[in-house]
Design a protein that fits this description.
232 residues; Pnp Oxidase, Chain A; 7-stranded antiparallel sheet
Length: 232
């Protein structure tokens, strides 16, 4: 599901590289949440910007018929200014079905969503691919890298993972962009805040419920990662 406005918002588990620690670095300590004043200040900073929503798709393998996944994310960004060496970075929660697909194939596609694509948000953001086939009535069409294609986005990029790191709750992927294109530049990109404005009451209530649930899962994963000082 998408993160709320201003907050960075799936089985083969790979060992991901971790940064070397300086010899004099302190060991892991018990993680402490921010006090209310500091948390309010950080939240105010986060709310100064409203991240766009992306649909992230991936498949277990590039062959048609292989298991597909997809989720809604805000933690997607351009990671290079070099025109002929484009890169993206994406953070995908490790409890998501889509994370499993990326881990298997080491590639994914990202789709920039317009404000008219709310049905894609409901399809890919309100259910889990562990329990339901989000592509049940969609054709099995693929990008050149073998990632699932969908209709309705305003732009897309095909991405191959070059490196990854664990942050406890997420895998953060640095990916080479191998292709993509603009499908319709006449539309306004959908942002996390705008989604909450456009969502009907029942969908907004479900988004709030999922946000609270995922926040609890993420908090526990971050705390465990900090305590262990290693990937879980």
């Amino acid at each position: 599901m998408p993160a709320r406005p201003g907050r960075a918002a799936g089985v083969r588990v790979s060992k991901e590289p971790t940064a070397a620690m300086p010899a004099n670095a302190p060991g892991p300590s018990h993680p402490q949440p921010l006090d209310k004043t500091a948390a309010a200040a950080v939240n105010a900073v986060y709310h100064l910007y409203d991240p766009p929503l992306w649909l992230v798709t991936a498949a277990e393998s590039p062959e048609p018929g292989s298991t597909r996944g997809g989720c809604i994310a805000t933690f997607v960004a351009r990671a290079s200014i070099v025109r002929d060496r484009p890169r993206m970075v994406a953070g995908i929660a490790r409890q998501h079905h889509t994370w499993r697909m990326i881990e298997a194939s080491r590639c994914f596609a990202v789709y920039l969503l317009p404000e008219t694509a709310l049905e894609l948000v409901w399809r890919f953001g309100l259910a889990t691919g562990k329990d339901a086939d989000k592509y049940a009535d969609l054709p099995d069409t693929r990008t050149p890298l073998g990632n699932p294609r969908v209709r309705g986005p305003m732009a897309w990029l095909d991405c191959r993972v070059e490196n990854a790191m664990s942050s406890g709750d997420r895998s953060i992927y640095l990916a080479e962009v191998t292709g993509g294109g603009v499908l319709d530049d006449s539309m306004q990109p959908l942002s996390a805040g705008r989604l909450m404005d456009l969502a009907p009451a029942d969908k907004r209530a479900e988004l709030d419920r999922l946000y609270a649930r995922d926040g609890g899962i993420d908090a526990a994963a971050i705390d465990a990662w900090r305590m262990d000082g290693k990937e879980r």
